[in-house]
Design brief:
Chain A is mostly helical and 286 residues long. Chain A is 77% helix and 3% strand. In chain A, strand 1 and strand 2 form a beta hairpin. The longest helix of chain B is centred in the N-terminal third of the chain and has 26 residues. Classes of the chains: A mainly alpha (286), B mainly alpha (352).
């Protein structure tokens, strides 16, 4: 029983952080139709922001705020400027452009910070006794923080003016524009929030994963899986699937090998996508 | 570059250009020692999955980023069979192709049940799933350490990939075979139907074409091309490993084809050679190769969205148009669309 509880908690930690990255990815796709291959790199930049803040004597919270504000604003607006000429263009071109950006960011991070893994000490060292296991309290804080951010995101999209505008633009950009929604400002906001969520996730997870230039690569693939399974552009669906995926992978690994669990997850997502594509087909521009 | 030109005005010139290109590829590199043919055989082998991606993307308008699964499964098939003492080169070739086509059958099913973005994501998930397969049975596949290919030159018809030019010519022969067959098929009635389906599936279906039938056919055909690449790779590499099946290898093939141009047969080969050379050269000259490759990708996206061959083709068409309008005022040329074509090329709207 103790193993199960610990596995569920581990799964929630992984799922919560994944949900943040995936939610940003889903937002970018839903509103802008952008498949951002560089999302994992903004996760990496967020992690480095935390490490930098801590190594310069600033607090952990300051690091996370810097990650959200600096990476979110500069990264989001930079990405927007870069992809603006490609709006309404082939998805393949957007994929290529963000892949190019990903390579550049990884190399720049390598040049600036070196290729070695940086350790980030968790801001909370306390541990919680679960049976015979001492479980780190910080891991639980990660889950709660991610839940709070995602709940905030949900409220923002549901009730705040700009959130409603975001949904309007996602549904029908032209109609929203005709009705007076400032589309370019909404775009900018979507970029900043989408990138900012990845940066915050990187910052939150830095003490758990260590920080290195390619830390975002694995996160990226899993985030794509989550976004696909949750429904492209579906903010809530992505968050729910991320949490479910984290828990299922973690629980499954108790009884069967991790690789087999991963394969089963891939199979299930493939089936889900096939079933969903029969209902509603999403057009790709090549 | 030559697609659909056999019956056109420029057919003889296009055929001559293709023949000259491949004659140079076959004859010239061996004159400069062992290094160049070995480097080129690497480009040609990895050009095959890129060609497979281009055929699906350029003509079925389905972006397959899972071709690494086909390539890798074929390579693994050869390695596993040699581990079980099967060294007959013909048996290995047939088995590798069959295994690759079997994997591409999965992609063919995706082509039927999904379109566009969903197809892209399904292929992404599939190659990721295949990449985790070697870890499930490490005794059979070697797991993370990879699997040695046994049999030395016996499995490559007695041709040594590291000595002499025999193996290089075998690779050239396979590539020329697939290119010639692709050109032939694309310029045939079926190929033109495929292009029509890619541009507008609904209209093609209304005209009576079996959209899914053509899509399945082009997927299986391109799967066979990628599988032959995997087979050749296993013949010249001492080891097959997990990464061959994964996303990175698949994405590389997509990059090669997009950079070269998905609308042509020769473009993916040029894209493969160009990008692999760039990565290898910059890797030797500097530790910043990833940075340069990233910028190279951005240059292609913003300045050459139809790929290098697509861009050259547009420039060539522009030249022909200007020449044909030589008797008219230059303003007329502008108004007939020549300037618009340049604009499309550099503003990046040509692939719409």
């Amino acid at each position: 029983m103790e193993h199960v509880v610990v596995a569920v908690l581990n799964g929630l930690v992984v799922g919560a952080s994944l949900a943040l990255v995936a939610a940003g990815l889903a937002l970018l796709f839903g509103v802008l139709g952008v498949l951002n291959f560089a999302q994992g790199d903004f996760f990496m930049l967020g992690a480095y922001a935390s490490w930098l803040a801590l190594s310069h004597g600033l607090g952990y919270v300051a690091g996370m705020a810097a990650a959200a504000l600096v990476v979110g604003t500069v990264g989001g607006l930079g990405l927007m400027v870069m992809l603006w000429p490609l709006r309404d263009r082939a998805h393949a071109l957007v994929l290529l452009a963000t892949l190019g950006l990903s390579l550049i960011l990884e190399q720049l991070a390598n040049n600036l910070f070196g290729g070695d893994a940086k350790l980030v000490a968790p801001p909370i060292g306390a541990r919680l006794a679960i049976g015979t296991t001492d479980y780190p309290v910080y891991d639980l804080v990660v889950v709660l923080a991610a839940a709070a951010i995602l709940a905030g995101g949900f409220i923002f999209l549901r009730y705040v003016k700009y959130g409603i505008w975001l949904r309007a633009v996602a549904q029908n950009r032209r109609m929203a524009s005709v009705l007076g929604v400032p589309v370019s400002r909404v775009y900018a906001l979507a970029f900043v929030i989408g990138v900012g969520l990845a940066a915050v996730a990187g910052s939150l997870l830095a003490p758990l994963t260590t920080v290195y230039p390619t830390v975002g690569l694995d996160v990226n693939l899993n985030a794509f899986i989550v976004v696909i399974a949750g429904g492209l552009g579906n903010f809530r669906g992505a968050a729910a699937i991320a949490l479910g995926l984290g828990v299922v992978e973690s629980l499954g690994a108790i009884w069967i090998r991790g690789e087999a669990v991963q394969l089963i997850v891939f199979g299930l997502v493939i089936l889900l996508l096939i079933v969903r594509s029969q209902r509603q087909r999403v057009a790709v521009r090549l | 570059m030559l697609r659909g030109r056999f019956a056109g005005r420029g057919a003889p010139a296009a055929l001559a250009a293709a023949a000259a290109f491949f004659a140079i590829v076959v004859v010239v590199p061996p004159l400069y020692g062992q290094f160049l043919p070995q480097r080129l055989q690497d480009y040609l082998i990895f050009g095959l999955p890129a060609l497979a991606v281009a055929l699906i993307a350029g003509h079925a308008r389905l972006l397959n980023i899972g071709v690494g699964a086909t390539f890798g499964v074929s390579a693994y098939t050869v390695a596993i069979l040699t581990q079980h003492s099967e060294l007959n080169p013909l048996v290995l070739a047939v088995a590798a192709l069959a295994a690759g086509v079997l994997v591409s059958l999965l992609f063919a099913i995706y082509a039927v049940v999904a379109t566009g973005l969903e197809y892209l994501l399904l292929t992404l998930l599939t190659t990721s799933a295949f990449a985790s397969l070697p870890l499930l049975d490490t005794a059979l596949t070697g797991g993370e350490n990879g699997l040695a290919v046994k049999g030395a030159v016996t499995i490559s018809f007695g041709l040594d990939p590291l000595q002499g030019n025999g193996f290089y010519w075998l690779v050239c022969g396979v590539v020329i075979f697939w290119c010639a067959l692709s050109w032939y098929l694309l310029s045939s009635r079926a190929g033109r139907a495929m292009v029509a389906i890619g541009r507008n599936p609904a209209r093609a279906a209304a005209m009576g074409y079996s959209v899914h039938g053509y899509q399945v056919a082009v997927t299986l055909y391109s799967g066979a091309i990628a599988a032959s690449g995997g087979w050749l790779y296993a013949l010249y590499s001492p080891l097959v490993f997990q990464d061959l099946l994964g996303l990175a290898d698949s994405v590389n093939s997509v990059l090669y084809s997009l950079i070269g141009g998905v609308d042509s047969v020769i473009g993916p080969l040029l894209g493969t050679a160009g990008l692999r050379f760039l990565i290898q050269y910059l890797g030797q000259q500097s530790t910043q190769s990833q940075l340069y490759v990233g910028f190279a990708l951005l240059i292609v996206v913003y300045l050459l969205p139809t790929g290098v061959v697509g861009g050259l083709r547009q420039l060539w068409q522009l030249r022909l148009r200007i020449r044909s309008a030589a008797g008219r005022d230059l303003d007329d040329v502008v108004h007939t669309g020549a300037a618009a074509e340049v604009d499309a090329l550099f503003a990046g709207t040509a692939d719409e």
